[in-house]
Design a protein that fits this description.
By secondary structure, the chain is α+β, with helices and mostly antiparallel strands. The protein contains four helices and three strands, in the order αβααββα.
C-alpha cells in the first residue's frame, strides 16, 4: 500500500521514526527484505520507496503484529 505524503511529511516521519527502513525491519523480524516488501504490495503494511530505499509506516507494522 503506497503512502501519499508530501516531501515535508516524509521528512517529519523519518525524523520522528514513524517510518522504518525495510532492511532494518527485516533484520529485526528475522525476515527477508523481499518478504517485507511483498507484505507492503499485499497491503499488509503501508510502505513507500524514497530513492532506492523502502520504508514501512510504524503504525501499520503494529497492526500486523497485533493481528
Amino acid at each position: 500500500m503506497a503512502l501519499n505524503m508530501t516531501f515535508e511529511e516524509v521528512c517529519e516521519k523519518l525524523r520522528t521514526r514513524e517510518l522504518i527502513e525495510v532492511s532494518i525491519l527485516a533484520r529485526k523480524m528475522n525476515r527477508s527484505e523481499e518478504t517485507i516488501r511483498r507484505w507492503s504490495k499485499e497491503d499488509k503494511l503501508e510502505g513507500l520507496k524514497i530513492g532506492g530505499r523502502w520504508f514501512v509506516k510504524k503504525k501499520s507494522l503494529e497492526r500486523v503484529i497485533e493481528a
